[in-house]
């Protein structure tokens, strides 16, 4: 299999004059970008980084970040991208854990780098005069003569280490080889039916698997990657119209923001023919609104992770709302019982269990970085235990119901938040909803719905809505709490643990604080 450096060379050789990268007023064709990438790769080697060394990169989605990703693939250096919002202790951990040889960063995260004691022990490449730097990014950009072979990696070399955000405990490093990454990108192209010359919005962070996949997949089809440094719905709409973007791959939260932006109605988004989402379930209400607004020819629900890029895909997300479809091109999936110790302890059809994936899949990682404890928990008999809950329906389609840790156990019943959220999301006055378990003396946990309102609605009306739905009685929320915002991770995942812990801001509108209480009866 080709390594990723040679994968990029394919695009340079096929379409040297095609537009490859845009960041504001800066534009590169593939041939132009290739020369810059080679300069940066040589600059990293001149700093002392060799094949297999790790480079920590703490940047927003700017052209330098995308360039460094490809430069590392050319040089055989392992890129370790980290959230630019990282705190000093997180930097300390990742610098030490990954054994990085240098750091690249920018002013927005300079304070954290300066305050990280571990970061002071390695060269620090600063952009835009970032404080604490030992050299500048411009020093890497010196034009050089490139002769002979320009790639220094093979398909079995490590491409990157992604640190999982982790809702609890310290982050886990996920090392992925060139062949894992290329297989994931090829599958992404196939599963999203990308054509030659697609154009996408590069807004999902390049420290997250969705952002990396967008970057790699555009190179595979000689496409355009438009950098968006920090999410702004108005700027995203402007980019769609200005550059004729053809495909979007976003978390549901960002789609919600696009539709909520006042400029949406007056922006020409007709060039967008393919929508894809991942990172979190999309509720039924948002699915319907997006389908009406874009009328896409393809609407893909992609379910995956950093460890195994694709678990499953559904290429017609509105046909069976909530369905994650079937196993991806490179994947085998099972659902095992919630307490299963073996991958052979299968759950029955429509029985909620834990989703597991075959580690022989082309996209699957081989184990965590320096974490035998995490390996012991998640890797069993050749299968990756995802920690996600779900079930197969009678058609063989997968439904993802949440995390094992998010499962609400109320009165002895296992209750998934996702089913309840789907019902409440369809109420016209509900903008966003998240359901979580809150400690309760009688029931163990009480089902509570946290609502961000679009228009005024009270608890009684929402309870009546649930009673009139097909939601079984014991799953009905016992409380409704109205909030200003639903807490989410930087990539849009609902942080239910914060809701359970009371870490939210109430919406002080009329009757906002009046919670609706009902007794639980089993059905």
UniProtKB/TrEMBL annotation:
Region span, Disordered: 502-523
Signal sequence range: none
Residue ranges of every copy of the AMP-binding enzyme C-terminal domain listed in the record: 420-493
Ranges where the AMP-dependent synthetase/ligase domain occurs: 10-369
InterPro entries: AMP-bd_C (IPR025110), AMP-bd_C_sf (IPR045851), AMP-binding_CS (IPR020845), AMP-dep_synth/lig_dom (IPR000873), ANL_N_sf (IPR042099)
Molecular function per GO: medium-chain fatty acid-CoA ligase activity
BP GO annotations: fatty acid metabolic process
Pfam families: AMP-binding, AMP-binding_C
Annotated keywords: Ligase
PANTHER family for this protein: ACYL-COA SYNTHETASE, MEDIUM-CHAIN ACYL-COA LIGASE ACSF2, MITOCHONDRIAL
Record-stated family: Belongs to the ATP-dependent AMP-binding enzyme family.
Protein name: Feruloyl-CoA synthetase
Taxon lineage: Bacteria, Pseudomonadati, Pseudomonadota, Betaproteobacteria, Burkholderiales
């Amino acid at each position: 299999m080709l390594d990723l450096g040679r994968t990029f060379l394919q695009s340079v050789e096929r379409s040297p004059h095609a537009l490859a990268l845009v960041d504001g007023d800066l534009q590169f064709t593939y041939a132009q970008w290739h020369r810059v990438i080679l300069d940066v790769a040589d600059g990293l080697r001149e700093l002392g980084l060799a094949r297999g060394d790790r480079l920590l990169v703490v940047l927003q989605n700017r052209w330098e970040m995308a360039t460094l990703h490809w430069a590392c693939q050319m040089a055989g250096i392992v890129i370790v991208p980290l959230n630019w919002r990282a705190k000093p202790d997180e930097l300390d951990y990742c610098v030490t854990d990954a054994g990085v040889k240098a750091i690249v960063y920018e002013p927005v995260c300079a304070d954290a780098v300066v305050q990280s004691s571990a970061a002071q022990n390695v060269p620090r490449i600063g952009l835009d005069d970032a404080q604490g730097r030992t050299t500048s990014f411009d020093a890497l950009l010196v034009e050089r003569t490139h002769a002979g072979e320009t790639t220094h990696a093979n398909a079995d070399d490590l491409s990157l280490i992604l640190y999982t955000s982790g809702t609890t405990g310290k982050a886990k490093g996920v090392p992925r080889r060139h062949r894992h990454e290329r297989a994931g990108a090829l599958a992404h192209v196939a599963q999203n039916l990308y054509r030659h010359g697609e154009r996408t919005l590069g807004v999902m962070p390049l420290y997250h698997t969705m952002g990396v996949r967008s970057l790699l997949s555009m190179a595979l089809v000689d496409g355009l990657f438009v950098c968006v440094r920090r999410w702004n719905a108005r700027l995203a709409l402007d980019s769609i119209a200005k550059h004729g973007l053809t495909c979007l791959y976003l978390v549901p939260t960002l789609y919600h923001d696009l539709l909520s932006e006042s400029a949406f109605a007056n922006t020409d988004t007709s060039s967008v023919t393919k929508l894809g989402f991942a990172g979190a379930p999309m509720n039924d209400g948002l699915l319907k609104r997006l389908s009406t607004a874009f009328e896409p020819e393809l609407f893909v629900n992609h379910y995956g992770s950093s460890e195994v890029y694709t678990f499953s895909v559904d290429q017609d997300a509105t046909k069976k709302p909530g369905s994650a479809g079937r196993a991806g091109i490179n994947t085998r999936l099972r659902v095992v019982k919630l307490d299963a110790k073996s991958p052979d302890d299968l759950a029955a059809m429509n029985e909620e269990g834990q989703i597991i994936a075959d580690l022989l899949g082309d996209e699957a990682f081989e184990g965590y970085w320096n974490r035998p404890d995490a390996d012991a928990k998640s890797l069993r008999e050749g299968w990756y235990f995802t920690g996600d809950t779900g079930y197969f329906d009678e058609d063989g389609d997968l439904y993802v119901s949440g995390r094992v840790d998010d499962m609400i156990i109320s009165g002895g019943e296992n209750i998934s938040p996702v089913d309840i959220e789907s019902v409440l999301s369809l109420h016209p006055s509900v903008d966003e909803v998240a359901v979580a378990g809150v400690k309760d003396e009688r029931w163990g946990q009480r089902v509570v719905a946290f609502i961000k309102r679009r228009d005024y609605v009270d608890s009684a009306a929402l309870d009546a809505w649930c009673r009139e739905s097909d939601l079984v009685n014991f799953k009905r929320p016992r409380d409704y709490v109205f909030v200003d915002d639903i807490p989410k991770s930087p990539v849009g995942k609902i942080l239910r643990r914060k809701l359970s812990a009371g870490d939210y801001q109430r919406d002080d509108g009329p009757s906002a604080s009046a919670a609706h209480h009902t007794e639980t009866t089993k059905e």
